[in-house]
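Hello again, I could really use a second opinion on something today. For a while now I've been wondering how a particular protein folds. Please have a think about how the structure follows from the sequence. Here's the protein in full, and shout if anything looks odd to you:

***
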Amino acid sequence: MKNNTYMYALLLSVTLNVTAYAQEPPVLTSVSPASGFDSGGIGVTILGSNFQNDVIITFGDSAAVNLVRLDSTRIRVETPAHPAGIVDVIVTNSDGQADTLFNGFEYILTLFGPPTNYAASGAIAGLISADLDGDGYSDLAATNWNTNIMSVFLNNGDGTFALRTDYPAGVLPLSMSSADLDGDGDNDLAVAVREDTDVAVFLNNGDGTFAPKVDYPV
């Protein structure tokens, strides 16, 4: 009787194990692209087979975000943030079966943050960087050829810039340069104006604002 009970328990255990893993295990074959910035947010396609509906993707020890299972062979995710380096990519089905693509993704150190755009008054023809208000930080000045405007963007001291100040520059301003033209220690601006065939000089008031242009024919 004891032997029969033991055999029944063993048979039941084997049956449960076989049932639990009746699904084929996932297979992870590729990750594309295979590298991205450590800040995360890179769209990645995971290819393989036997991906279940509730599949989980991890990069190293961090779970991917915005996961979309396209079908049993394709998954779209966005990478989580992670320190720079090479990590394994792991796919885990809801039944616990998993597959690993060793060294499947490389996180690259982000040297620059995402760009910040500053609206100009028109199409930019010339752009220079100089300390225009004497605070030790580089400011920006640009010519806008289709609006006949010179724009100045003063640095806030942290790499961001204040809203531009526009100055009429003449018809079709193109290249420009900065130098202390009146010897007062401040950087002034000179703009080459094509249709007016002159150079427009803007003298610095000492605080990053400029007097109206003075034209010099060429």
